[in-house]
Each structure stands twice: as C-alpha cells, then as structure tokens.
Specification:
Elements (H helix, E strand, L loop, with lengths): L1 H5 L2 H17 L10 H12 L6 H56 L3 H11 L3 H11 L3 H27 L4 H11 L6 E7 L10 H4 L1 H4 L3 E7 L2 E4 L11 E7 H5 L1 H4 L16 E6 L10 H4 L1 H5 L2 E7 L2 E3 L12 E6 L1 H11 L3 H4 L4 H16 L2 E2 L5 E2 L2 H16 L1 E2 L2 E2 L4 H24 L2 H8 L2 H24 L4 H11 L3 H10 L4 H27 L1
Antiparallel strand pairs: 1-4, 2-3, 2-4, 5-8, 6-7, 6-8, 9-10, 11-12
Helix pairs in contact: 2-3, 3-19, 4-5, 4-18, 4-19, 4-21, 4-22, 4-24, 5-6, 5-7, 5-21, 5-24, 6-24, 7-21, 7-22, 7-23, 17-18, 21-22, 22-23, 22-24
C-alpha cells in the first residue's frame, strides 16, 4: 500500500512537500534550505520514477505569483514611478549579460545554435523563452539544452540568494531595520497641535478653509477656553484656539501657514470627553463609497483621522473608500464612538473572510492575459505566460482594491497561505519533472553542457548583483529581489521572502520581472540568428 501511495500523484505531492519542508528546516553551518528543500526532494523522487501531473506545477506557479502580485500591488506602482528606469536597467543588464556569456561559450565549445539557445532559456529559467527558442529554430535540440540547464538554473539562483548574504556577512534582519529607519519621517502619520494666531481664520469654519486643497491632514479636536470638543466641518475658529491635526510631517508643516505656530506640550488636547477608538470595518454598507458619501460625522458625530490597511497607514480625505478589514481610528465622544463601533461591525469572521468569487475571477483573468499573444517589431511575438499574466493582474487588482461593487482585497492570512502553497506545489512539480531526466542528460553530455548552463546562470546573476549593490547602491533586500526578477526565478523569490518579512524583495522582483520576461523572449529568437 505504501508503494502505491508513493506513486499516487496526490499522495506523492504531499509526501514530497512534507519531506522537503522537513529537509528545509535542517540547519547546517547556521544555514537552512527553506522551501528549496522541496525542490531537492522532488528531484530525488523524479529520478526514482515518480511522476506528477504537469498541472500541479502550473497551479503552483499561478497561485504563487498571483499572491505575490496581491502582496506587492498596494506599493508597486508608486515604487515603479519612482525607480522604474532603474529597474529596467537592471533587467537589461542581467538578461543581456546572460546572452553575451552564451555567445562566448558557444564559440569556445562549438555548441550548435539550437542547443545553445535552449541552454540560455534553461539557465534563465524562462519557459516563455523556451517557447520562443523552439519557435525560432523548430529543432528538438532546444528542449535538450533547456533540460540540461534548467535544474541548475533553478537551484543555483536559489542557493545564491540564500548563501550570498552570509558570505558577505550581511544580516538581513538588520538590513530590514535600517530600511525602516531610513524611511523619511515625513511619510509617517503623526499628530501635531497648532495655535490659531492667523487673523484670517477668525470666524471661518473648518469646511470653509478647505484644508484638503492645501494639505492632506485631518483636524480631530479643538481646545477653546479650557474645553476640548471634536472638530466638525461647521466649527468656527477663533484666534486663540488650539487645534489637533493628524497627517504626515510634510503635510503638517503646511498648516503653520494657515493657523500659526505649532503648540508645545503633547497633553494640551488630552481629555476623556473626546476619545479615539480603533475600529475594524466589517460592514458592507461602509465600503465601496467615498467617506463624504457615508456622512459619518452627521450620522455618528465621529471623524476618521487615520486608516490602517495591512502595513500601510493613510490620512483619509472625503474621496477615500473603506474596505472590509480596514482598521480606522475615529475621534469623537465616547458615546458617539460606541455607536459607530456597533454599526461598523467588528465581526471577526467577516474581517478574515476571503471572497472566492473575486479570487477565482482574478486568477482566471491572469491566465487569459498570460495566454494572449503580443506582437513585436519584425514579426516576433511573446506571451506573458502563467507566471507573468497572474502576476500583472494581481498587481493591478491589489492596487485598485475593487471592481465596481466587487471588493477583491484578500486578507493577509489568505495571501500567505496562497503564497506558500503555490510555491511548494511549483517546486514539487518542477523538481519531479527535472529529476526524471537530469541524470541521463548529464551522463550523455559528459557534464560540459551542464557546466555551460551553470556558468550562464551564475554569470548573469552575479552581474546583476554587483550592478545593483555597487553601481546602483541598492539595499541587499532589493538586490536579492531584483536578481530573482532578472533571472525570472520564482523559487529564488520564495527563498528570499522566507528569510525576511520586508516587502522590498517583492517590490524589486515585481518591477524587474516583466521587463526581463519580455527581453528573454525577444533575445532567445534573435540569439539563434546571431549564432
């Protein structure tokens, strides 16, 4: 019975995942394999004749990259606007350096062009590249070359991103702390108190001042003649008032031009009459509409001063839309805050609920995009594939948060399990597939073709790493993510994300990956004619 189960696809899959996860926890010289332990166990099972349906690998990569898109989406587009050209340069350096090394090795060893472009696609772990190479040559030798180079292409980059920080004596946890410490203070949401000394404010209502046209801040409380009251749009200011504002440092600085000097002493507006409560939103009636439409002040007498969504913090304006699972900080009287709390929800199950409809539609849309053919100059074409399509859709959906009335946000816990489950399924499928032929191919080639693939993989990855670290001066977390993206290595990204809680690797990977994917597809076709 045990033997039957080992060769049963579903039982074998979970046995590989279990044994690989156990192997990944084994610590040698202070290092662990992490999720790549699944890959090594899968290679062994593949060599022993165990087979898994190809759909398992496809399902794994779809779930993993879609989860990556959902995790990185809220920050990705802002990051790309700031550093898009830089990430494009990194992708070009990695992909082109791999192609140059391939051309040199082909000349030195006399490798046929068909075998060479297959080795290049495998060394860069690019299935779309393989498809483009097959289309350009129409020769089965391309598949042989891909099979030779792919195993080390996967394993080599995974080991590189895991071992390199240790070799360079870089503590990733300390790097993560340094990144957080280096973030501009102006991006953190703070409170600040201001004396109203500007005569132009006398008699003006908060609504009449139209503060949101000047600064993205919210006024939560007002001190007048020893009494503290919640701030309301119709509250008329008087010279001598003290107001409490909530916002980013750079936005708060602008208020000195409106009100006057900032007030010293943090406790000026502390009182039990006006309280602040953190409330989780779990009522659909409060989502999908702008705060101005909800009329929370009129209905409950409270003001939302901050919104916490996953690891991001917002100072909302009237156009801001709440989503299920958001944590909001409301200010008002104790009774008003309790009334808002009762209507907002606080239902634990609702907060952590995953919309299967939104999840399924998003993945299906990603697959549709992945299979779509895009034309390139010269008659060539490329597809984003099952890695690129779901990744792009995940990024876009996470950025916008909803489509009409359909909320597509996925709770953090659900994204984590999608990420982990997809990764181990992909590693198991890829490992078993490669393990079935790796020994025979190595024996037939005498190892020279395998060495060529390894040189291309390491040469391209190290070129990207050195450029990122010493030319572009990126932090190590961004370096590792960018290199994984340039090598289109999903398993390497999985190894990085296991080693750190920072989103920097995800952001770098998702910025570099699409450019690298397209470049490899194009170069595989042109490299054949150059050779």
């Amino acid at each position: 019975m045990l033997q039957q189960l080992i060769f049963h696809p579903v039982a074998a899959l979970f046995l590989i995942v279990a044994l690989g996860s156990a192997l990944g926890k084994v610590r040698l010289a202070g290092a662990t394999l992490g999720s790549s332990g699944v890959l090594f166990v899968a290679l062994l099972f593949g060599h022993l004749g165990v087979k898994l349906p190809g759909e398992i690998k496809e399902l794994g990569i779809i779930l993993f990259v879609y989860a990556v898109g959902l995790q990185a989406g809220p920050r990705f587009f802002n990051q790309f606007r700031r550093r898009g050209i830089l990430f494009a340069k990194i992708a070009v350096l990695v992909v082109v350096s791999g192609a140059v090394i391939t051309w040199v090795i082909t000349r030195l060893l006399g490798i046929s062009p068909e075998l060479a472009i297959g080795i290049y696609a495998g060394a860069m772990t690019s299935t779309p590249g393989l498809a483009a190479a097959m289309d350009a040559s129409g020769d089965p030798l391309v598949g042989v070359g891909y099979g030779l180079a792919y195993p080390f292409g996967v394993i080599g980059v995974v080991l590189l991103v895991q071992l390199l920080p240790r070799a360079l004596r870089i503590d990733l946890a300390r790097e993560e702390q340094a990144i957080r410490a280096a973030e501009p203070g102006g991006k953190q949401v703070r409170r600040r108190q201001f004396y109203v000394t500007n005569p132009a404010c006398e008699g003006k209502t908060l609504q009449g001042l139209q503060l949101h046209r000047i600064s993205k801040v919210n006024i939560s409380r007002i001190l007048r003649e020893g009494r503290i009251t919640p701030a309301r749009p119709d509250t008329r200011l008087e010279v001598g008032d003290v107001v409490m504002a909530v916002g980013q440092e750079e936005e708060l600085d602008k208020l000195e031009l409106v009100f006057g000097a900032k007030a010293q002493g943090e406790g000026l507006l502390e009182t039990t009459e006006v309280v602040a409560r953190d409330v989780f939103i779990s009522n659909d009636s409060m989502t999908g509409r702008a705060l101005a439409e909800l009329g929370l002040l009129e209905r409950y007498g409270v003001i939302i001063t901050r919104v916490f969504r996953e690891d991001m913090e917002f100072v909302p304006t009237g156009r801001f839309m709440l989503e299920i699972g958001d944590s909001v900080r409301v200010a008002g009287s104790k009774e008003d805050c309790e009334n808002f709390l009762a209507d907002a929800g606080q239902h634990e199950k609702r907060i952590h609920e995953t919309s299967i409809l939104a999840l399924s539609l998003g993945i299906f849309a990603g697959m549709l995009l992945g299979y779509k053919e895009f034309s390139l100059p010269g008659g060539a074409s490329f597809r984003l594939g099952l890695a690129g399509g779901p990744l792009f859709v995940g990024l876009v959906l996470a950025h916008y948060g909803r489509i009409g009335r359909l909320n597509i946000r996925i709770p953090r816990g659900a994204k984590y399990i999608l990420n982990q489950l997809g990764l181990v399924f992909f590693l198991a499928g890829a490992g078993v597939e490669a393990g079935g032929s790796v020994v025979g191919v190595v024996a037939a080639s005498g190892g020279s073709m395998l060495a060529a693939g390894a040189i291309i993989t390491l040469g391209a990855a190290l070129t990207g790493l050195l450029a990122c670290r010493y030319l572009f001066r990126l932090d190590m977390l961004s370096v590792l993510g960018a290199v994984a993206g340039g090598m289109t290595s999903t398993p390497a990204l999985g190894a990085i994300t296991e080693a750190t809680d920072s989103r920097q690797p995800l952001l770098a990977y998702t910025a570099v990956y699409p450019v690298a994917l397209i470049l490899i597809t194009v170069i595989c076709q042109f490299l054949f004619f150059l050779l």
